[in-house]
Write a structure and sequence with these properties.
With 403 residues, the chain is of the alpha/beta class. 43% of the residues lie in helices and 11% in strands. The strands form three sheets. Strands 1, 2, 3, 4, 5, 6, 7 and 8 form an eight-stranded mixed beta sheet that branches.
């Protein structure tokens, strides 16, 4: 105890020499002071006093940056329009009405065929040959990874650049062609990868969207609008199903029935490893047997439809929509573009869908109300009523005989 008191006194007020008068009193005072300080600390922890701010800043509401604006706004602001197209279904991404408005406004169009890693390479070359006759066309694979400022260091930037391709030829074409001050905008329909294309172009230039600016410099003359423009158009194909997947998951068998009408029997047998079956009516039964999906010892068509929709959503089942003839000539992609994109081209096969419009007929099942099983038809009620009347008559005669 004496040793503890001595240590407390030393830490509180320094060492007290042995020859000092009133040494014991000094030590006791030091111990009391330390105990008071400890008690004050405990009280502060228990009761936190409110912080008083003298010059309080006014509260500013946080406004979230819009993901996209109308394509007509982008058209009015920009000189060059990069039209992003999902190569899996090109016809579902092109809008003829908006194409006319662009030509009337004398603006330049550049087509970007996105998601080239999800379709075979011959389909990429075919659509490149078709669209390159209308406007300058580029193929690319954009990435969803957004660069932070710390990732602008050279080794980290090299790792991120390996995850997308096709941006360098686009930027080289823009820098060599347009030497005056021009503004570039990105447009496209829903879920074609517009924001991914914007971030990919910024990454290739070493820029980020951290500042949330309206537009960003690509070089001295070119500026890129960071908010893409949305082309609103009605779609009724596979891309529309994938956009509204949460709704179509309630009617999966009806979606698969509509899809089976635009798939050949050979393609279904090859991609799902099915034996011979009656096409297209027997596709759902064959898939249920293939994946062992039953409900009450019967093929579960709803479970089969949900499985196929999940495979399409996760890109495990690659597909493309091709309404053109199979003998359409393929165009060679330029060498500089091929160097940047070659590692992403898919050399395998994918499921071919022969129509961009799916006639999905959704029949909603009416829910039975409680006690509906106990309802009786009017005819049955009348018959039962007549029988009861007959029984009453017989009962009255029996009563007369008994009397």
């Amino acid at each position: 105890k004496q040793w503890y008191q001595r240590r407390v006194a030393i830490t509180a007020g320094g060492k007290v020499p042995n020859l000092a008068p009133f040494k014991e009193e000094l030590l006791l005072e030091a111990i009391q002071q330390t105990q008071l300080k400890n008690d004050e600390k405990k009280l502060r922890k228990k009761t936190k006093l409110p912080i008083i701010v003298t010059n309080k800043k006014p509260d500013t509401p946080k406004v979230a940056a819009p993901k996209s604006v109308s394509a007509h706004i982008t058209l009015s602001q920009c000189d060059i329009l990069l039209w992003v197209i999902d190569i899996r279904n090109v016809n579902e991404c092109l809008c003829t009405d908006f194409d006319k408005t662009i030509k009337e406004a004398n603006k330049t169009i550049i087509f970007l065929l996105n998601k080239i890693d999800l379709v075979p390479s011959n389909i990429v070359k075919k659509w490149y040959g078709i669209l390159s006759t209308r406007a300058p066309t580029f193929v690319m694979k954009s990435t969803e990874i957004i660069l932070t400022e710390c990732e602008q260091i050279v080794p980290a930037l090299k790792q991120v650049l390996a995850k997308f391709g096709g941006a360098k030829p686009i930027l080289a074409y823009l820098k060599n062609t347009y030497t005056e001050a021009t503004k570039i905008g990105v447009i496209g329909t829903k879920t074609v990868g517009k924001s991914c294309v914007v971030s990919t172009l910024l990454k290739c230039c070493g820029r980020t969207k951290a500042k949330r600016s309206v537009d960003t410099k690509l070089n001295e003359n070119l500026r890129l609008v960071t908010t893409p423009g949305l082309i609103e158009m009605e779609r009724s194909g596979v891309l529309n199903v994938m956009d509204n997947l949460s709704q179509y998951m309630n009617y999966p068998s009806q979606v698969l029935v509509a899809l089976s009408e635009h798939i050949t029997k050979e393609a279904a047998m090859f991609h799902f490893t099915l034996p011979h079956y009656n096409h297209p009516d027997g596709l759902l039964d064959a898939l249920a047997v293939r994946y062992n999906l039953y409900f009450e010892k019967l093929p579960d068509h709803a479970a089969v439809g949900r499985l196929i929709l999940k495979l399409l959503r996760d890109a495990k089942l690659k597909f493309y929509v091709d309404e053109t003839e199979e003998d359409t000539a393929q165009a060679d992609i330029p060498a500089d573009m091929m160097l940047d994109v070659k590692r992403f081209l898919y050399e395998g096969d994918a499921l071919r869908i022969t129509a961009s419009d799916l006639n999905i007929v959704i029949v909603k099942k009416e829910k039975k109300k409680k006690g509906s099983d106990m309802d009786i038809d009017e005819e049955e009620e009348e018959e039962m009523g007549s029988e009861e009347e007959g029984e009453d008559d017989d009962g009255s005669n029996d009563d007369d005989e008994m009397s």
